Amino acid sequence: MSERITYAQKKFRDLLEQSKFKSWCSENNSPYELLHKIAIGERVPTYKLMCQTCDIIPPAEWLYFTDEKIPYKVQTVPKWDVEQESFFIKAHKADYKEICKKYNLEQIDGYNLFCMKRLRPSMVIIRKFIKDIDPILFFIGTKEVTTILEYPEAGEIITAQNKQYFCVSKKSFNEEKQKIIVAPVINQNIQTDTLITLNLKDVCILTENQYQLDAEQKQEVLTKIKNNLF
Q1: pLDDT tens digits, the chain, 230 residues: what are they?
Q2: Is the distance from CB of 165 to CB of 182 less than 8 angstroms?
Q3: DSSP conformation class of 95
Q4: I need a labelling partner for 63 at 20 to 30 A (CA). Which of 3, 77, 86, 210 fits?
Q5: Full 3-state SS string of 5-53
Q6: What is the pTM assigned to this prediction?
């Protein structure tokens, strides 16, 4: 069985093969010995390290293995202060028990993670959420969300929690309210008589879908939804 490595490890190993790893670490003011141990599989990255390097290594590359497709935009963000509460942690202080149950996280770990700041979100913990949540939400705060996340416009077909939806609300509404009003899409059929509100703190919105409507089709669906509502 071949060794399973993350995208970050692959990047490091490629640099090692090219005899460029040490200079890359020096240029980026990164700890050579620690990253070398991670590259060869002797250590795993801590949340603190991921926060310290998220300006040069996209968080997704730390968290996904090379045999997995990264479903989110792969991007770097400014270094994140490990002592600060990230957007995802702050968003789920009140409902952490439901989150623990949904993502198979021990209640005591959830309490220490979301409420008491006694536990940091390790690679193992973050990976519990990434099927629904863009891992970047563990490395940015509330203020940064509106500038980093991509918001869909009315008429776009989006994916959230592995389901397709037709976006009804305008982009400006989505940004301001941190919510998206959608109609379910089942087998490419838009359910114009059913509307659902998605909270951005609970889902990751993906706008890259092969199935999209042209301008005329979008307007036709939006008009039909409006007529059904009023």
Answers
A1: 578 999 999 999 999 999 999 999 999 999 999 999 999 999 999 999 999 999 999 999 999 999 999 988 899 999 999 999 999 999 899 889 999 999 999 999 999 999 998 999 999 999 999 988 889 999 999 778 767 777 888 998 887 766 889 999 999 998 888 889 999 999 889 999 999 999 876 666 665 555 688 889 989 999 988 888 76
A2: yes
A3: T
A4: 210
A5: CEHHHHHHHHHHHCCCHHHHHHHCCCCHHHHHHHHCCCCCCCHHHHHHH
A6: 0.76
